[in-house]
């Protein structure tokens, strides 16, 4: 069953889009639809009362979803899209029992987390969890931050249809905000891919044109009501297969990126979230309603003409001035110097017309496995010779971005997913401290599916 809900969804969006020049009121104007009330995705129940362990059960299953007032067939974790938010504290053990009630294999990959290889959910040398089977993932959460989970088998289709959720690892040394909003951005549009005929469910917009509309945690143009005078922590995640969200709002205060707190507060004009990217911000709520929008951004080269799309709004309740920002324990730190050598190079090439996407001239799974000794400290060049942008992602590790296009990073930048623009060289510093065979790929899922994926082996010390 395919979703033809687009027109209705667009109406929802139009109703919530601010008009730039106020026009004289005409009595014939239709009554605007009411924006849906924003609610965070429900959190997973902790099945183990002991401290230091978060134990949850997730069921991957096919479901009928209600999106924008329409019924759509999709995949879900425990009946919800986004899946249950997993909230733990740094140092906790995460235990997840996954039951696969789909008719196909699946896995869970812990995006951005330095989990041991056997728990990584990648199917290079590991079997997926078969239909009807159960698998237990268990490992220690060593770093605080905003991470996410999704399948890494039949990935393009399963993520697109709704299998994704946020994993929040809290650091007790950080101050507590008055409220937290979990914003999971997914694109929504009628698929143009003939191969997907009859596949049904959530579809994607292929990243060239801005999605219309964006879903924010499953809702179209929702409105979050929060008390005036409160500090709201926003956790942002782009799970779309191919679309970039270039998110902004007045007074944007970014506090974190993929791998936890930034060295210091930043006030950029927007936050670019490539597929797979995360960020965090604090919103100081005063008397003004705030609208979060996404500027038009194409994987074919960045900012494109077009009006910003409304993502959601935050409406203050009551009256109070905007509070001061929180006292975040900024880690500080200085960026590593770039060096005049390269230990590993990844050259991205491809052709949108053939759908063939290569790294170093190879398409997955016919790849040369590159090996690094355990604990090696290496410099990596990622060079994009293709006509589109690509978010580069390595499993099981984070890395420092030391320069972009020859320009040294102005601050210490630690990521696990980083966008590479057309004809750009990125320079990364990687400490290979987690043994295993790690998928290294573009996070535009149709590109990964088309072969833009390779394997980096970090040797065991033994
Ligand atoms: Cu989100 Cu290979 O990962
Ligand atoms: Cu790509």
Task: Explain the overall architecture.
The structure is a single chain. The chain is mainly beta and 462 residues long. Helix content is 5%, strand content 42%. It contains three helices and 34 strands. It has a seven-stranded mixed sheet with strand order 11-10-9-13-18-15-16. The protein is globular, with a radius of gyration of 21 Å. The relative contact order is 0.13. Mean pLDDT is 90; it is low at 1-27 and 190-203. Copper (II) ion is lined by residues 390, 442, 444, 447, 452.
Count of helix runs: 3
What's the overall geometry?
Answer: globular
- Unique bound compounds: CU-O-CU linkage, copper (II) ion
Low-confidence stretches: 1-27, 190-203
Order the strands across the largest sheet as they lie in space: 11-10-9-13-18-15-16
| Strand fraction | 35-45%
State the major sheet.
Answer: 7 strands, mixed
Give Rg in angstroms. 21 Å
* Number of strand segments: 34
Helix content: under 10%
Quaternary state of this entry equals single chain
Q: Kindly, what is the distance between the CA atoms of the first and last residues, rounded to a whole number of angstroms?
A: 52 Å
Mean pLDDT: 90
Structural class of the secondary elements? mainly beta
Write the layout of secondary structure elements.
Blueprint (H helix, E strand, L loop, with lengths): L5 H11 L36 E15 L2 E8 L8 E4 L3 E8 L8 E3 L22 E7 L4 E6 L4 H6 L4 E6 L8 E9 L26 E3 L2 E2 L2 E5 L3 E8 L6 E4 L5 E4 L2 E7 L4 E3 L4 E7 L5 E6 L1 E2 L3 E2 L5 E9 L26 E8 L4 E4 L10 E3 L3 E9 L5 E5 L4 E6 L2 E2 L5 E2 L1 E4 L4 E8 L3 E7 L2 H5 L3 E6 L4
Parallel strand pairs: 1-4, 3-8, 9-13, 12-22, 23-26, 25-34
Antiparallel strand pairs: 1-2, 4-6, 5-7, 7-8, 9-10, 10-11, 13-18, 14-17, 14-19, 15-16, 15-18, 19-22, 20-21, 23-24, 26-32, 27-31, 27-33, 28-29, 28-30, 28-32, 33-34
Bound molecules: CU-O-CU linkage and copper (II) ion.
